[in-house]
Automatic annotation (TrEMBL):
This is RNA polymerase sigma-70 factor, ECF subfamily. Residues 125-178 form the HTH luxR-type domain. It comes from Algoriphagus aquimarinus. Keywords: Sigma factor, Transcription, Transcription regulation. Belongs to the sigma-70 factor family. ECF subfamily. GO terms for molecular function: DNA binding; sigma factor activity. NCBIfam families: Sig70_bacteroi1 (TIGR02985), sigma70-ECF (TIGR02937). It holds the Pfam family Sigma70_r4_2. GO terms for biological process: DNA-templated transcription initiation.
Length: 189
């Protein structure tokens, strides 16, 4: 690392906004093309660039003056790209699994079971209090993390966790009632 770059890294570690601006100017385009090389769309690449610099700023105290700042910046970008890929893969896998799980078969009983379960799910979802439902939908339907939901809704991550936990309890109770109903109807015949 040359001396000017070392000084720039040291200034950034101490919270110097001008040093941050200089690094942004120097690395913005490099990171953008780095993202495109990984196959990201332009909009996604821009988002990763922004996230990279936000993370650089929030983790500036972890910059090691004896190591390459450039490597540090690109490692942040690479980790964000990998996290985004993991999230997409997880969402796709969950979506495929849910579709297979909920897809009715040709069997009349299975179709009725599917309809009952789907109806119970919809009723329970609609009965959730507004904020709890919103948090649950952001988590389960949009795949957002607790931190992302917290940021978007302006509530603490702990509150997000509580809302999801309570929503899951509501769903569990609804399914238990449905199972109880099914069992009683089976044993009454």
């Amino acid at each position: 690392m040359n001396q000017d770059f070392e000084k720039l890294a040291e200034r950034l570690r101490h919270g110097d906004h001008k040093a941050f601006d200089q690094l942004y100017g120097k690395y913005h385009q490099k990171i953008f093309f780095f993202c495109l090389k990984y196959g990201l769309r332009q909009e996604d690449a821009e988002e990763v660039v922004q996230e990279t610099f936000v993370k650089l700023w929030t983790s500036k105290d972890r910059i090691d003056p004896d190591k390459s700042l450039s490597s540090f910046i690109f490692t942040i970008s690479k980790n964000i790209i990998i996290d985004n890929f993991k999230k997409k893969i997880k969402l796709q896998a969950v979506s495929v699994y849910q579709m297979k799980l909920l897809e009715p078969k040709n069997d009349v009983e299975e179709i009725m079971d599917y309809n009952d379960l789907n109806s119970t799910f919809q009723k329970t979802l609609n009965s959730l209090p507004g904020k709890r439902r919103e948090v649950f939908e952001l988590s389960r339907f949009k795949g957002m993390s607790h931190k992302e939901i917290s940021k978007e809704l302006g509530i603490s991550p702990k509150t997000v966790e509580n809302h999801i936990s309570l929503a899951l309890k509501n769903f569990k109770q609804a399914v238990q009632i449905l199972c109880l109903f099914v069992l009683t109807s089976i044993f009454n015949f």
